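Kindly review these tokens for lecture notes.

. . .
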Amino acid sequence: MEDIKINEHLIFSLKKSKGYNDKYEYELIFSSEPDTAFGVGWDKRTLNRTNKPESDFVQSIYTFQTDLDMVVITESDEDDYMGTQDEHVYENVCDGIIAMLWEREIPKDKKRIVFRYGMLLEEVVILLKEREIKIEKVKMIADS
């Protein structure tokens, strides 16, 4: 990937859908300001919906497709991670206590894929490359 910037940090993830090729699609949002991006309202869940970061904080967006079913903290109701019982869950994500996105099943012969808030884009690419998963940059309006 020739357009990886050194100062891009993971701040948000989404599970898009299972596509025509029967693979899950995930979207990763990166910012050059992970410390200031948190806490401006998008990190709160309301009415079973998670707000996305404002475009001012988004430096780049990447997607990848895989057979792996991954848990996305902002969309997980399994353990009520983002429920109203604990309004500080995303704060715990930012502090690294809870992962942002992780592989649901623990592989027997490979290291489990876990993404944490603030991870550098380069680290994300390396993790995915170990599993031969290609990550692609989404062309944003500002890139035109």
Summary: Residues 9-143 form one domain. Helices lie at 34-37, 89-94, 121-130. The two ends are 19 Å apart (CA to CA). The chain has one domain: 9-143.
